[in-house]
Amino acid sequence: MLKLSAFGIEALSAVTEQTMVARITTNPAYPKPLRDKEMLLVQGGLPDSLPEGFKAYFIVDNGKLSLPKNLDIPNVFLLPEDQYYLSDGDVVKFDPERKVLRTLYRRKAKQNGLLVTERCNNYCLMCSQPPRDIDDSYIVQELLQAIPLMGKDNVEVGITGGEPTLLGDDLIKLLESLKRHIPQTAVHILSNGRNFKDITLAQKIAAVAHPDLMIGIPVYSDIANLHDYVVQAEGAFDETIKGILNLKRCGVKVEIRVVIHKQTYQRLPQLAEFLARNLLFVDHVALMGLEMMGFTKANIDDLWIDPADYQPQLVEAVETLARFKMNVSVYNHQLCLLDKRLWPYNKKSISDWKNEYMPECEPCLKKEQCGGFFSSANFRYSENIQACFV
Description:
Shape: globular
Distance between the termini: 28 Å
């Protein structure tokens, strides 16, 4: 698991910069007029002199050098070992005062996630990013600095929260920036869909005309009060369905997301029937395993069910959706637990920086095709995990 944040960054020279968003380069000969948006990553220890003009300098200590206590050039810092994965093209946010470094974008990753707010109008039982009622509007401004620095070769950028639609017009600004700077990169927004009950917001999203945009929205049950219970918000089901209808009316692609746990697994077949009869026009349905983060740990007794135990319901749901020609996938599951009828629908969906495998998986011949585990799965995972040899 990669650590996207590091704390206690050691300064090796005077600090003259405040919070900065910049791109990593290992090229000391980077054109001088462009260096003010770059941080120089110095590998192999500290050289006799550093080229001037970079936003900051991160030194990779090879363990053999005696680093000087003072340098004439400002903003030189020692890079922690758990950040050695940083490379050319990565975009980071660095706060020298708090000594915190956070990776916003990794060029080598197929998918990058942008957390745009921690605020939310749901309070889901299994939320992996528990909401906070705070003013975090500064995040958007930092991302608007970061997006122009991102590479053009990523497959997808995800926008997540919290609830991104709470940003209002700032969400539109982010989408416009993504379209302007990296239009060939797909954008996937995770939203509870409720605020799209106001068709004006759906119209604004559509008006951006991003060439590859999809909004992932959860529907946890065909019964309104069960969905509302899972998201801990009365009336959420009706608002969510209305939001989906408004988005599709405006021509925006929509994905339905269903997290499977003890509260949702029994009615998976009925939910599939509901989707096929009422929301046949959505663009994708993802049936997802549980992530052991945030509120999931606190509510584990109400949520945990071994995936091996809900295979009959999952098979019936997938077969119903497929029979109606809906685009359906199974996310966040391990092949050894899935009924083999589901293998063609299984996708490796867990972000690479938090995707791991258990010791039982070591001899498995299907690891490359398997969804693997969230790094948090050590907290609880199926006792039925076993290596596949055929």
